[in-house]
Amino acid sequence: MELHLFDQVAACALCDIIAGRAPSHVVFEDEHTMAFLDHRPLVHGHCLVVPRIHCATLLDLPDIMVQPLFRVAKRLAWAVQEGLGAEGSFLAINTIVSQSVPHLHVHVMPRRRKDGLFSKRMIWQRRPYRGDEEVRRIQEAIRSALHAVVPPQGN
Fold this sequence. Notes:
- The chain is α+β, with helices and mostly antiparallel strands.
- It has one domain: HIT-like (HIT family, subunit A).
- The protein starts with 12 loop residues before the first helix and ends in a 7-residue tail after the last helix.
- About 30% of the residues lie in helices and about 15% in strands.
- α2 crosses α3.
- The longest helix is centred in the middle third of the chain and has 22 residues, at about 65-85.
């Protein structure tokens, strides 16, 4: 199978971000992936990690791309904790049901005890940023953590 890392779909919002046709607050990018702040965060610092190739769901992701995608998701989970002083992190992937954009994306969110992310009814409230300055401050905190120290490596 020939893999075109930059294959994109014309009507995909995440492909538009990857191609630079739509605005975003990028925190990390490499040849295989891109990570940026969610524009409708559940918690401040909520990021999306996406493969640069268009694939609708995790089930469509070529095996060769699994490791690069999750290597970045793991590193970003560490960076949102370190950069934002969070107690932990939460990662999630929707596959079709509740998937608002048909392009695979891994949600990476900083977590704090009693942050309200989970409730008895599991209704997630979007928490918009107060303005561009807050978005840039959070973006820079995550970027700095990503570049400051390499996170612990598992075996």
